[in-house]
Each structure stands twice: as structure tokens, then as C-alpha cells.
Amino acid sequence: MPEEKTLTAFSQLLKTLRYNSKRYTNKPSALQVEVLLHVAVKPRTYEELANLTNTSNGPISRAVASMTPRIENEKLVRPDTHLLDRRIKPSSRIYLVSLSKTGEDLMKNIGLLK
Questions:
Q1: DSSP label at 21?
Q2: In angstroms, rounded to a whole number, what is the distance separating the alpha carbons of residues 76 and 73?
Q3: pLDDT digits (tens, 9 = 90+) for 75-93
Q4: To which H or E segment does residue 76 belong?
């Protein structure tokens, strides 16, 4: 059975995501939470995230986009909460997804990151 501290931290994470995801359904998707937790362990590529979550690139891209600032139709679109950063790996066209400063702070505050 998981430790109470871990369950409390995970509950805090879900609560924070829910309170800061008011744009559409007021609920983070399970895939968003899973992607966030995998990226909290270490920066990941879309391919790694797809393999870890057993899904395809499309849903991963949408999950990452919901937590990452991006350009759409020549306009900056900001997420409800900026938790992830997406950068192109040097000398390739592969995106590397990592925690943003806000994401790191969130994980530290709830006790999932030291």
C-alpha cells in the first residue's frame, strides 16, 4: 500500500490541477497527469512519453500543449497553468519536454520533488 504522504501529495497535485484548469472541463485528464508525472522524473521526448503511456503522438501532443505556452495562428496561447516547457533538441527536430519553473515549484510544494 502506498504511503499516506505519497497519496496526500498526489491528491494535492490533482486538486491544484483541477483548480487551475477552468478553461474547458475544470478537470485535468488522466493523460495530462500521467505526462506531468513522467516529465517530473526526467525530461522526455514525445516518443518516450507515447511509449510510457501506451498512446500515440496526437494525444501526447494535446496533453503537452494544454500545459505549455505555444504559438497558434501567429498568436501566443498561454495555458491555464504553465507546468511544462517544450524545446527542440539541439541538431534535431525532436521536442524535449521538461518541467517549467512553475511545474518544479508545484512538485516541490506538494512533496513529489526534492
A1: -
A2: 8
A3: 998 887 889 999 998 788 8
A4: strand 75-77
